[in-house]
Amino acid sequence: MARPVLITRALAAVLAVWTLAPAPALADEPAQVGIDEIYHEVGVADTPTDYVVLVDTSRSMAEDGRYSGVRSGLRGFFAGLDAADRVTLITFAEVPTIVYTGPRPGPAVIARMPATPEGNATDIGAALDRALAVLEGGDTGAHGAVVLLTDGEHAPLAGSRFASSTAWPALAERGRALGERVSGYAIPLAGGENGAELLTGTVPGTVTLALANPSEVVDLLDRLDERVRRTELGRLVAGDVNGTVAATWSAFPDGGDLASSVRVTLTLRTTTSVLPLWVSGLRGELVGVGGTVTGLPEEILLPPGEAQHIDVVVRSTEAAGLRLGERTTEVPTRLRLAGVVSSPWTTAIESELDIDFALRDLDSTAAWPSVWTTGLSWTWIVFIGVLLLGVLITGLVTWELRNPQLRGHLLAQSADGGAQRIALEGSRRVRFARPASLSDPSVSGEFVVRGTRDGGALVTYFPARGQPGQPRKLPPDVDVDVYGILIRHLRP
């Protein structure tokens, strides 16, 4: 007999795994939010940015209108910044020069720049050194952005510290020390890398914004603040692209009996640091013994890193059996939880930042050394027996009260026939046929007599055809006409 049970449990386990497999096609998708709302949620829109703008003023910048384009583009760029942003504008050729440092500048700052580029060198190393010094002394809570606009390769004067490679490792170390709060943006104005590699080596993760022609620098600078926001958001969500939801259970009651309801607490927490996650189609199952997990929400939104506690009830659904006597068996049960994981942010971020998310569905299993009690306990058997006996006794007492014993006897006589004597003593119900009538022998029926609590008798006539008559009480020693028959109750 053990083999069919094992086969049944094996099939049940396979069915549980199949039914718990995530089904994205059937899951409800969360309402998606726009990119601007996401900026505010993560604080990118509200966190000030400390911009350090490095502008090459060597002679070659005069070609193809590069320098004039940069000046025009910076006007629009500065105008689009938030009031809380800070700007340090540095021009560089042989040496770097700070033109302005302070809050969001107005158009007049552009006039402080050289009217024409006349430098004889391009010391990108010295410019980056000055940019890092500005950020190192700035607000550590602000996001930093280094913007490099140049049309040439690094070409310093012979006396520059950065004319040889020995000074660059220290510069790179300082850039790494600033951490992820600083991003870099290289804008080559004459094609090629134009210093982008040097900025990348100093500020890890630098983005190169290539131009098809120098005139595009105006539009690019107009949109640079938006690009900075996107870069910062991309940095924040980079670690969340493969996020999922972790499930943990409260300490299971050791030896919890699945024959009754067992209450436990489920804790759900995202593995993401920024991205909120949406879990739909959440469902649980007992593996090892058939059962249910109730109390789970159909869907739930989980803020990043926050724990959500859910009280659930676990119970076996397998029949306990009708065997006499209880038997408790240890069951190596496992609680399995599954759900479809998505996010209300993915659509906007994937389209705006060109990031592909690969969120992992929830699929968690936890072992639980529970027990399962089957059969009927002797306590319940005795209780049910006593209950049935009590019901039987109550029924008998009620029947006796409603049907008291009769006393004496009856005399029943038709109008033209002889008298009939009917014994009642000790009986609870007595039936007798209607006495025959000589004038109308076709009339027939039956009388039923039962006792009353006061020692009297109650008689009801049941004709052979038609409905029964109304019960009539028989006073002692008095003739009573009951549907044409005189009946007298003679008591002892």
Describe it for me?
Pfam families: VWA_2 (PF13519). Residues 50-224 form the VWFA domain. This protein is α+β, with helices and mostly antiparallel strands. The protein has 3 domains: 2-24 and 241-374, Immunoglobulin-like (Sandwich), CATH 2.60.40; 38-239, Rossmann fold; 409-490. 25% of the residues lie in helices and 32% in strands. It has 10 helices and 22 strands. The protein has helices spanning 2-20, 35-42, 66-79, 124-136, 168-177, 196-202, 217-222, 224-237, 346-353, 378-402, and strands spanning 49-56, 86-92, 96-103, 143-150, 182-188, 207-208, 245-249, 262-270, 277-287, 291-294, 299-302, 307-316, 327-342, 362-374, 409-414, 419-423, 429-433, 445-451, 457-463, 472-474, 479-482, 485-490. The strands form 5 sheets. A 6-stranded mixed sheet has the order 3-2-1-4-5-6, sandwiched between helices. Strand 15 (409-414) and strand 16 (419-423) form a beta hairpin. Helix 4 runs parallel beside helix 5 (168-177). The longest helix has 25 residues, at 378-402. It is rod-shaped and about 155 Å long. The protein starts with a helix and ends with a strand. The model is unreliable at 1-27 (pLDDT under 50).
